[in-house]
Automatic annotation (TrEMBL):
This is DNA polymerase III subunit delta. Its EC number is 2.7.7.7. It comes from the Bacteria. One of its GO terms (biological process) is DNA-templated DNA replication. NCBIfam families: holB, PRK08058.1. It comes from Aquibacillus salsiterrae. The lineage of its organism: Bacteria, Bacillati, Bacillota, Bacilli, Bacillales. One of its GO terms (molecular function) is DNA-directed DNA polymerase activity. Keywords: Nucleotidyltransferase, Transferase. Pfam families: DNA_pol3_delta2 (PF13177).
Length: 328
């Protein structure tokens, strides 16, 4: 997303606010961009930086052709500094280095920008150092803090930032984007439920593991309906050998949720929302065995299983309990 017009299709409200601040020369000294992964926080920060530095911008829109624009795109602009987590966290030393850099005069102008990616991962000491930095803002300094979890950032830091809440991506818009990449409609619907990041979705789609994961979910449904006595055996021999870590287990449970949602969509006549369109016959058969009430209870059970996984309950135990709950 290299233009405000492109960004406005994804984040219309935030794009309008930032563009207005540029055209009216009312740029704040600090912004907090909060939103889920894939909502465009990083792209937004780069676009905003280009609009600030570009000498050939028109109505706030950067030219995307000049030296400043190219260097910001390639992360080589001398007056645009980025901080990313060093391992699992952003450390005090990184903020101290940033402060030192900002004591120097800008190499090409007095304007300086710093972008902190995953700002919620700052250590306590790093947060306190940044707070001191924010308390004495330079008129020509602009900070952009990017986060998926703003509540993990000190309230005193949040209060000194102009908060820009990025909205979740429109699922239909996201599915169309995936289909433009050559991904089938059914697959795009499934991927949109797993991630709202285009790159992640494309990577998942090309992974053979994902294709097999979909098959195993459908097979589990068949076993639960036709051979319920073999369900626990299937979990141990098939499910747990494929979904080996917690991230994979979460994806498997998300796919299982989609199946039971499809049952409800079929029951209420909302066929256009069904995701597993190539398995419509199986969905019809499932709806004959499981009522809408049962499907709803299964969804609650799956959400509880996901919560237990996050609490580090043993994965096999979680899946066995879930299987028994669905069978009831």
């Amino acid at each position: 997303m290299n233009t405000w017009a492109e960004m406005a299709k994804v984040q219309p409200r935030v794009s309008k606010m930032l563009l207005n601040s540029i055209t009216k020369d009312r740029i704040s000294h600090a912004y907090l961009f909060q939103g889920q992964r894939g909502t465009g926080k990083y792209e937004l920060s780069k676009l905003f930086a280009k609009s600030i530095f570009c000498k050939f911008k028109q109505d706030g829109q950067a030219c995307n052709e000049c030296k400043d624009c190219h260097r910001i795109d390639s992360n080589n602009h001398p007056d645009v500094h980025q901080i990313i987590p060093d391992g699992q966290s952003i450390k005090k030393e990184q903020i101290l280095h940033l402060q030192k850099e900002f004591t120097y005069t800008g190499l090409e102008s007095n304007q300086k920008i710093y972008i902190i990616v995953d700002a919620d991962k700052m250590t306590t000491n790093a947060s306190n150092r940044l707070l001191k930095f924010l308390e004495e803002p330079s008129k020509l300094t602009t900070a952009m803090l990017l986060t998926e979890n703003s509540q993990s950032i000190l309230q005193t830091i949040r209060s000194r930032c102009q908060i820009m809440a990025l909205q979740p991506l429109n699922p239909i818009h996201f599915e169309k984007k995936l289909q433009e990449q050559g991904i089938a409609m059914e697959t795009s619907k499934i991927l949109a439920s797993l991630t709202n990041n285009i790159s992640d979705a494309i990577e998942i789609n090309t992974d053979e593991w994902f294709a097999n994961a979909r098959k195993i979910v459908v097979q589990l449904i068949e076993v639960l309906q036709a051979k319920p006595d073999e369900a626990l055996l299937f979990i141990n021999n098939q499910w747990m050998t494929h979904f080996k870590d917690r991230n994979q287990l979460h994806q498997g449970l998300q796919l299982l949720m989609l199946w039971f949602k499809d049952l409800i969509y079929h029951d209420v006549g909302n066929e256009q929302s069904i995701v597993f369109t190539s398995h419509l016959d199986e969905i019809v058969q499932s709806s004959l065995k499981w009522s809408r009430s049962h499907a709803t209870q299964a969804l609650y059970a799956i959400m509880e299983a996901k919560r237990k996984l996050d609490q580090n309950v043993h994965p096999t135990l979680v899946m066995e309990q879930l299987t028994l709950q669905i069978q009831r």
